[in-house]
Amino acid sequence: GIMPGYWQGGQLHFAENTILAGVGDEAGADIAGRGVLATAHNPDYQNLTQVRLHKALCTVVNGGTGEGTRYAAEVLDAVPPGFGSQMITETGWRVLRAVPVGERQLPVVQEYREILATGAPGRRAVSN
């Protein structure tokens, strides 16, 4: 592989999960996400949160704007206060950026945008 021994602990799976989610490959992203959690040296909330946000991203990319943004909000809400990170927040914004322009004014998307703008992790979930 590339630079043997350099990337250990799930980084390659993480990159694969990120890319496949971004193009809407649900099956591939799911397999890579399970690889992240199985090989990470520290499969903590950060890895689990990222994998879940990638699932939300994949849902949005595949046309499930409401479902994906609601799920992303639930994921962010589950992060304990004070445990949010720039990586988690940026992935949350990536989910929002995947929303088609014509759907960005939907109430569920507006609520999700507000959650991100007010600090995201551990705040509150989007209502139905």
How would you describe the overall organization of this protein?
This protein has six helices and no strands. The longest helix has 17 residues, at 45-61. The protein is globular and about 40 Å long. With 128 residues, it is mostly helical.
Dominant shape: globular
Number of helices: 6
Q: Indicate the proportion of strand residues.
A: under 5%
User: SSE order in H/E notation?
Assistant: HHHHHH
Q: Structural class given helices, strands, pairing?
A: mainly alpha
Per DSSP E runs of 2 or more residues, the count of β-strands stands at 0
Poorly predicted regions? 123-128
Overall helicity: 55-70%
Distance between the termini: 45 Å
Q: Over all CA atoms, what is the radius of gyration?
A: 14 Å
Mean pLDDT reading: 86
Main sheet properties: none
Chain-wise SSE layout:
Elements: H1 11-22, H2 26-39, H3 45-61, H4 65-78, H5 86-97, H6 107-117
Helix pairs in contact: 1-2, 1-3, 2-3, 3-4, 3-5, 4-5, 4-6, 5-6
Summarize the structure.
This protein is mostly helical and 128 residues long. The chain has helices at 11-22, 26-39, 45-61, 65-78, 86-97, 107-117.
Which properties best describe this structure?
62% helix, mainly alpha, disordered C terminus, 6 helices, 128 residues, globular, single chain
